[in-house]
Structures are given as structure tokens and as C-alpha cells.
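Handout, section 4.2: multi-component inputs.
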Amino acid sequence: MPATILVGAQWGDEGKGRVADWLAAQSDIVARFAGGDNAGHTVYVDETVFKLHLIPSGILHDQVTCVLGNGMVINPVNLVKEMDGLQAMGVDISPSRLIISTRAHIITPAHIALDAASEKARGAEAIGTTLRGIGPAYLDKTGRQGIRTGLMAQEEAFADALYEMVKRTNVILEQQYGVETLDPQAAAQSYLEAALRLRPYLRDVAVYLNQRMNDGARVLCEGAQGTLLDVDHGDYPFVTSSSPTSGGALTGLGFGPKRVDRVVGVAKCFSTRVGGGPMVTELHGELADRLRGTGEHFWDEYGTTTGRPRRCGWLDAVALRYAAEVNGFTELVLTKLDVLSGFNVLKIATAYIVDGRQVDLLPDTTLELERAEPVYETLPGWSEDITGARDADDLPAAARAYIRRIADLCGVPIRTVSVGPERDQLVHL
Ligand code: GDP
Ligand code: IMO
Ligand code: MG
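Output:
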């Protein structure tokens, strides 16, 4: 049976968690393939709000087995905290429901210290990372000196590897950054308890997934981050260090492209970005404040992981069209359409002006992107509250026209739109 890949089409926080929760209802397995606890996925289930960082949103569906793939970087202490938190909320987290790849990489205290030190050293050029140690952990992975999750099964070897990594990092912390060093013994010790807890969950994920799919299981690959944060396809260097695009699902889990028959892009119906980097349609002042919300609601635009206010702006169809091609979207799900109620007019960037020239394609250098000005198309807004809409006829004509225009601009059908954070607040077109 085929697999579905779900990915963020913008700069993260598109509402992937709530869309994954919807698709998980029709899945047997939900697997994360990239990133770590830099992600924050919010899911509403009746009165309860779940905020997931490492564990796939599928965990909230009883029939689903969740998988943390080899493409991820995992902080064992934070994973155990998240498991305990979910368990306290009544979610079953036994090894029959959660599988951790033996080939993922461990985020150590050394990586977290390096993330902070390197961000500080960059000064005004800081990337604005989540400070979870993501970049340094991937750096050690590709530098072939990382620690794999499978080593948690061998207590002594795991402790030794941690000790050695912290010792090695201390030289960099001290000599390159001039910051405080870590105690290698204490660092190793602090991870041992978590490693012991996680041992029963470890497994060869590629073997497991291929076997289950041969037996007819339906797999949903839950992306984290977003296309413009991809280390290859995003606004380098203002990116994360993994491949959150659809190709990353194959390398991050270990199966072939023939398994995949659906690639779902998730896009907010406006733009947000947290952290540094270019954002061509960014707004400031009253319009930005209205898109961001006041911070009163869980869904207002403040980071799920870091609490930072998100930068907000109009929808960028140039970036969205690019995301559709890079990922090969077979459909696009639009989120947060309810937030646009009450705007007199809405704008969509359909092209950029770079150095006096109009361009329709996303520039391939970040320097050009930083100089780009948006070319806007203006569409009429609507005033009605649409949070109760469930099918196309419930939406004002202007909202339907806005959706249709986005689908036309990126050449991908839009069949589903969310109009609120609750499970049933979906419009099926
Ligand atoms: P993710 O990282 O892509 O999973 O997205 P986040 O959870 O970080 O951010 C999306 C936020 O928008 C969350 O607070 C969601 O509850 C909220 N949200 C998702 N869809 C909708 C929607 O259609 N309307 C509103 N108002 N909020 C939504
Ligand atoms: P979800 O899955 C939004 C951003 C950070 C920073 C850059 C690099 O919730 O959509 P990192 O800590 O990964 O080295 O930071 O990437 N970033 C995200 N922004 N949503 C996310 O995840 C993000 N994960 C990382 O803000 O700009
Ligand atoms: Mg998020």
C-alpha cells in the first residue's frame, strides 16, 4: 500500500500538526523523517491542546504506530519528557505504539552549547535557531563523528561516546568561542537514565516500514519545518540543517519513491517566519499585528517551541510555486483561512522585482532574495466569520475566489482548507 508524504510549503508552522492529525485517522503508521525538537506541532482534540515536538501527531489516534526515523536528531532527555507528558495526558506510549530508529542521531549537551555559542558569535547575522542543538548534531552526523541512537542499547559504550564528544567539544567552546566548558562526566551521566528508558523502543525502522508496507500498511510521513528552511532548497544559510522536503522522507525513513502516491503540501493562507532570513512579503505595523493575533489564543503567531513572535506577511505565491515543484505536491491544504475574515482587501505576491527586473521564479541566491520587492495582485476580502464552514457553499464567494487563485498560481489542486484549529474545522471542497 502506498505512502503519503506531508510537508510544510513555507517557513514552518503552517499547521502540519493539525493536518497530520486529520490524515492520521486513515493511516496505520505515522513517521517523522527529519529535524528534532526544533519542531512544535499543535493539535486540538476537543478541550485538550497537544504540543508535540519529537513524537508524530499520529500518536493521538489509537490505531496508529508512530516512528522516529533515521533522518531525525533526537535529544533523549527531551524525548522522555515528552513521552511522560503525553502519558500524563492519557496517551499510551508503550513500545507497541512508538518505534525509534537505531540510525537516528543523538543531540548531546555539547551540541546545545555549540548552538548557543555559534549563534552568539554570529551577532547581527544570527540565524535565529531554536537553540536545540540541531545544526551541530547534523554537523557531527555528516562529519562522521556523531552518536547514533542505536548505541543507547550499550550503556558503557554510550556513556564513553558522550564523554568523548563533550571533551572534544570543550576545546572548541573554550578556544574558538571563549565560553564556559561542560563537565563530560555529568553530561554522560545525565543521559544514561533516558537511554535506559528508550532502549525497548529501538528498532531498524527501514526494515520495519518496508515489511509493514508489504503487508498493506498505510504510512503517513509527517514533515517538520518547511520547504524554505530546507538545507538545500531553502534560503541558505537561514535554514535548518536537515531536508524537510519530500525527498527527505525517503532518505529519512528508508524506502523507495515507488511507495509514494500522494504528496500533501501544507500552506498557511498568509506568510509567517520565525528567525532570520529574507521574507519578501513581510508586513509591519497594524496589518502584521492583525495577522499575528494578540497572543491571547494558542493559534496566534507565537512560536510553539520558543514563544517568539512570528514575522507575518501576505501570501507569497512565488515561494509557494517553488515549493510545489521542489516537493512535487499532488495537493495543497490551506490553513488559517478564518484569520483573513475582516480584511477589506487581500494581497498575493505573484512575482518579484529584483534590481529593476521582474522575475517569476524564486531567485537562487539569498542576496537577490534580500533585494527582492513583491509584485502584488489585490483580491477582495470578506467580512463573514467562516469558522463554522464545512463545505464550499458555506464560504463567501470572495474566500472561494482567493482559494481558487492560489491553486491556479501554484498549479496544484486545493481540496481541503482549515478554518480553525479544532479537528472538525475543515472545509472539504
Ligand atoms: P506546525 O508546526 O506546522 O504543526 O504548526 P504550529 O502548530 O506550530 O502552528 C500552527 C498554529 O495554528 C497552531 O497553533 C494551530 O493550532 C493553529 N491552527 C492550525 N490551523 C488553524 C486554522 O485553520 N485556524 C486557526 N485559527 N488556527 C489554526
Ligand atoms: P515546525 O515543525 C518554524 C527555524 C528557526 C530558525 C531556523 C534554524 O514547528 O514547523 P534550527 O533550530 O532548526 O537550527 O533553526 O529554522 N525553524 C522553524 N521555524 N517552525 C519550525 O518547525 C522550525 N524549526 C526550525 O526558527 O530560523
Ligand atoms: Mg510549529
